[in-house]
Amino acid sequence: MRSELTIGKKLAIGVTAFMACLAVLSITSLKVISTLGSSLDAAVNSTGKKLDLIGGTQEAFQEMKGASLRVQISYTIAELERHATAATQGSCSACHATASVDDSVREIEASGAAVKQHSEELRRLVSDETERKALDTLESGASQWVECTKEYLQLANGNRFEDAHAVLKDK
């Protein structure tokens, strides 16, 4: 028995098979596009936020470093002028006046708090142990910087510059 498929039937089967393949491809493409949209959303919102927080943390660290250096320079100038001749005394300290220890400590602590705030916000977005360890190191370093600067200020304000210098050099 021979099956008789006319050209019309063969074309109808071919078009039906083609339409079925087209429907399967369309559904698959829509699913891929929808997951691509959520991946793009995660990349833009999560990764973009992480990068922004990292930039803010870096900026806060730079501010903390700058505040610390300003304090160190003003105390160094004051110490140099204390041992200088009468003709050169006061020439640099006019521009580099030493702020009070309390004011300097507040400025350094505020910078340290900004670093901590950015790292806490960033901690909510991290996803693996390596990133958490990096944040722990960052927070520890910021805390240590603040404590060392406070120790430096106390020693320098007490005219113990050798000890203050040791804090900068050794820690």
Proportion in helices: over 70%
Number of strands: 0
Main sheet makeup: none
Q: Report strand %.
A: under 5%
Uncertain spans? none
Give the mean pLDDT.
84
Q: What is the radius of gyration computed over CA atoms, rounded to a whole number of angstroms?
A: 33 Å
The computed structural class is mainly alpha
Q: Whole-Å distance between the termini?
A: 96 Å
The 3D shape can be described as rod-shaped
Order of helical and strand elements: HHHH
How many helices? 4
Structure description:
- The structure is a single chain.
- 81% of the residues lie in helices and 0% in strands.
- The protein is built from four helices and no strands.
- The protein has helices spanning 7-82, 101-123, 129-157, 161-170.
- α1 packs antiparallel against α2 (101-123) and α3 runs antiparallel to α4 (161-170).
- It is rod-shaped, with a radius of gyration of 33 Å.
- The mean pLDDT is 84.
Break the fold down into its secondary structure elements and pairings.
Layout: H1 7-82, H2 101-123, H3 129-157, H4 161-170
